[in-house]
Amino acid sequence: xxxxxxxRAALLGIVQGLTEFLPVSxxxxxxxxxxxxxxxxxxxAFTVMIQLGSILAVMWLYRQRIFDVVTGLPTKxxxxxxxxMLFLAFLPAxxxxxxxxxxxxxxxxxxxxxxxxxxxxxxxxxxxxxxxxPAPLIADAANTPILRAIGVGLFQLIALIPGxxxxxxxxxxxxxxxxxxxxxxxxxxxxAMPTMxxxxxxxxxxxxDHISADRIAEIAVGFVFAFxxxxxxxxxxxxxxxxxxxxxxxxxxxxxxxxMLGALAMGWA
Length: 269
Known about the structure:
Layout: H1 3-19, H2 26-37, H3 45-61, H4 63-72, H5 77-90, H6 93-106, H7 112-132, H8 146-155, H9 166-176, H10 181-207, H11 216-243, H12 247-265
């Protein structure tokens, strides 16, 4: 096993874990990172498998909430309501994700120009929503009304475009639905669990034949680093956006998108 391949896998795992739950698009960062360091991800097997590390990290952080909901389903109305809320918010992504999967992975994922413009336009939208969003009415994500939760789920569909960011789409959908910053971010984390697990199962069936014995070590390293870096970033991110907001992430997106367009125009990418 080439140590350089393991180092690349670790680096990409860190990128995945750090960006998965931030409103900056982990998919786009992985595509860019793989291109910059010359990592060949045959069949996208590596990308799919290390995303599971990020999912498990956020599930670990919210393990007590998950346990309370699962054990409370038979007897507690609030647990049943929470599960129904997440299910209905998740539901719109199922048919669109299945029907649009080939187009997204085939066409959009190959276009750095699409990613760059998605970064820029998404950043501008963030700044506008931060400035003009309605006054927050909901301080606890678990108390999100069902119709507002479905509204957030519909925003999640925008994230099919690489560069938009699943977490960004759902967070800003939450802000527009009247959640405060922390509640919107936490709702995004909760919604990520069924969405990303469902996406993982579907994508795993597509890539399982590309998981050869000589790639297992790379995938394991990427998985572990994705898990650990996601574990580290989630709670500080919540505290950061509660105090400061999402403006820094918006400007990061705009600057990175502009740099990408510049690199494309100069023929460097």
